[in-house]
Amino acid sequence: MELFLTLVSGVAWTGVYAEAIRVGLRDRTYAVPAAALALNFAWEATYAVAELRTGLSAQGVVNVVWAAADIAIIATYLRFGRSQLPPFVTRPLFTLWNALLFGAAFAVQWLFLAHFGMHDGVRCSAFLQNLLMSVLFVALYAGRRGRRGQSMVIAVAKWLGTLAPTVLFGVIEDSPFVLGLGVLCSVFDLAYIALLARDPAATGD
């Protein structure tokens, strides 16, 4: 069951990333909110190294695949992101902001790892930033006043990709903290799915 849920999460999140790359290039924008993207990349890079240092594992391989996909999404963000900001945000300022953003994201992951250790750090940081991503996707829809750079595939796959580890760590491993955060993620993920479902333009993804 553990391997099955890990693979479900891996396939679903890989679907999120593949679709985010496609939609970002199609709409000439980025399809994952910047703060969530930075935290995700930092998490995947950090824990891919940590997992693979102890030997080959399904989650370690999945993390490597996700980190590679994140690099492509980051490329769409760096290419198209500045054009969606006010004119006073020059390229040097945009570069400085991104250095701070991604630097802070890695610092957060390392602090979680140092304070909580591998077992709890990987779970606590993952579900906290997953909740942030769920909220930010709703904010992205509201901020863009529609589904530009978004799709139902991303929304549904993100929900399923979070639901599987919620069952694994929250229910099977009996972690009320993870279960609570996972339930909150589902609330916002389902709200986001409902927003896209009500938008006629989103049905043609």
TrEMBL record:
UniProtKB keywords: Membrane, Transmembrane, Transmembrane helix
Main location per the UniProt record: membrane
Listed name of the protein: Integral membrane protein
Compartment list: Membrane
Membrane topology type: Multi-pass membrane protein
Native species: Streptomyces cirratus
Membrane-crossing segments per the record: 61-80, 92-113, 125-143, 155-172, 178-197
